[in-house]
Amino acid sequence: MKRFLLKRILSGVLIIFISLLICFVLIHAAPGNPVTILAGHDNPSPEMIESLTEKYGLDKPLPMQFVNYLGTLLKGDLGYSIVSDKPVVTLIAEKIFPTLLLALTGVILAVVIGTMLGIYAARKKGSRFDVAVNSISYVFDSTPGFWLGLMMILLFASTFKLFPTAGMVDLRAGYTGSAKVLDILHHLFLPLLTVTLIQIPRFFRIARSSVIQIMSEDFITTFRAAGMKESQIFRDYVFKNAILPTVTLFGISLAYVLGGIVIVEIVFAWPGMGRLLMDAIMKRDYPLLMGIYLTLSVSISVTMLLVDIVYAAIDPRIRYE
Amino acid sequence: MSRLKDNKQLRNGIIFLTVILFVAAAAPLLATHDPFKLNEDILAAPGSKYLLGSDGLGRDVFSGIIYGARTSIMVGVIAAVISAVIGVVIGGIAGFFGGKTDLVISEIINIFLMLPSFFLILIVVALFGSNLFNMMIIIGLTTWTSNAKLMRAQALSLRERTFIKAQMTLGKSRGRILIEHIIPNGIFPIIANTTMNISQAILLESSLSFLGLGDPNLISWGQMVYQGKSYLVNGWWVSTFSGLAIVITVLAFYLIGDGLNNVLNPKLRAKK
């Protein structure tokens, strides 16, 4: 187990390194740079451009810049945002909680609901419930998250005025304590519903197909023939085997949601990393962009590592030497 | 063949797709207005003059949706084909050649799987210019991993088959065996997967367009949803109908892909 962990951590670090390298090269190879944006459109003085370029180390050759970046990174320093001059760590720290709140709760809800629906549908295969949920799952799988979000706003916020259209807290009300938590939940509802609905079909389908597959295995037929109770077969044998693919999918989904949640955040003006990312891209804010990318890659790698560990723990057939 | 007929998903998907392809092909005949023309009626409600209403600049939504079908299908198909070609070549080489080549390629595939691809696509399109060409290339370059994995598995099992071994003994070059026998014999799962990838590519293109990173010279459904966002209250029809067009098209490809997969994998097929 120890060697397995070590190997997984090493490959995680390697992946983070490679994705940082790709991102770094892409960002710097792209046309446009932050200095021209900082220096302004109207007659920027050559001296100012020169001093700004020097200040941010953009005059050095690219490989040098990357090595410098990694050096400061290892000291835990993500550098300063070029546009706002604040530390990148502070900027990200301000925004990471709302993003994680939305992404994590969304995926966890989707796992629970999707898996339950999937298991139920599999046990009643061919029933009206099965057919209905199956068809609906296709539709939600084909729905773009941003459009679903807009429809939620149109329906529940603009027409029925049940939920706020945007933001995370009501700034004018200035709630504190439990009223603030309730206010956040009230704002969270629609974006969360959007993220969850989009994710449910994947979990529904994988749970349904793996339960169906396990139920058709010979050993289950043997149990049935031996007269074991259907509920016991399901609880002790089917469920344990059928849940494994869901664990893998959970990791992949979380990674996917973390990367794609930008759009849902923008639809609902949710104060997460989405807006920050779009601003960083538009203003060519290299350090901030790298910082956001790093945060994302690290979260994905850590999730994958956790998934592998959980997988090894619950599947007795997997023992890593 | 009777399996194909019995497959409901596949049948419905093909019906949907036929309609969409017809709409895309006959766009100039079906459109009631020039989709770029700024008409005088701004935010006109759906009615006899503007079937699905007009947008904030007076453009006809119905005609926009009709022409938008071309963009979506083009982006989806080309991006998915790029992804299929890369995946088939890389996966085929890994599976057929085996050994160290396979180890290295498999590791590369794993790394690519873990990259936050939407993020990369976003950065490339935003920084290198939001045109259709960049969009198709980068979507293709970041989505080939699933095809490579499928092709690798196919090649691994095919190379043990007698007819391949016979060719090897006859001294045919391995490159030629790969191209002439391994790939054609193992391509079917990749076709099913590519149909699914078309759905994904259409969704990705519409997401990028929704973020304002679409190709400004083309009509795309994602852009229409994006432009309609500002008029959600006074002109709900702009975003609603263009988004619906995305859902239907993605669904069509999705049903076909899933239907093909079910035909391939009889274990998952619903018992009658």
- How far apart the termini of chain B lie comes to 17 Å
Beta content of chain A comes to under 5%
| Uncertain residue segments of chain B | none
Quaternary assembly: heterodimer
Count of DSSP strands of chain B: 0
CATH topology of one domain in chain A: MetI-like fold
The succession of helices and strands of chain A, N to C, reads HHHHHHHHHHHHH
Topology, please?
The complex is a heterodimer of chains A (321) and B (272).
Chain A: H1 2-29, H2 34-39, H3 46-55, H4 62-74, H5 88-123, H6 128-141, H7 145-159, H8 177-215, H9 218-225, H10 230-242, H11 244-267, H12 273-282, H13 286-314
Helix pairs in contact in A: 1-13, 5-6, 5-8, 5-11, 5-13, 6-8, 7-8, 7-11, 8-10, 8-11, 11-12, 11-13, 12-13
Chain B: H1 2-6, H2 8-25, H3 27-30, H4 61-97, H5 99-114, H6 117-128, H7 132-142, H8 145-158, H9 162-169, H10 174-186, H11 188-210, H12 221-229, H13 236-264
Helix pairs in contact in B: 2-4, 2-13, 4-5, 4-7, 4-8, 4-10, 4-11, 4-13, 5-8, 6-7, 8-10, 8-11, 11-12, 11-13, 12-13
Short characterization:
Chain A is mainly alpha-helical and 321 residues long. Chain A is 76% helix and 0% strand.
Question: What descriptive keywords fit this protein?
Answer:
heterodimer; A: 321 residues; mainly alpha; MetI-like fold; 76% helix; 0% strand; B: 272 residues; elongated
Can you describe this structure?
The complex is a heterodimer of chains A (321) and B (272). Chain A has 321 residues and is mainly α. Chain A has a domain of 197 residues: MetI-like fold (Orthogonal Bundle). Chain A is 76% helix and 0% strand. Chain A contains 13 helices and no strands. The N and C termini of chain A lie close together (6 Å). Chain B is elongated and about 75 Å long. Chain B is mostly helical and 272 residues long. Chain B starts with a helix and ends in an 8-residue tail after the last helix. Chain B has a single domain, classed as MetI-like (MetI-like fold), CATH 1.10.3720. At the A-B interface, α1, α6, α7, α8 and α11 of A face α5, α6, α11, α12 and α13 of B.
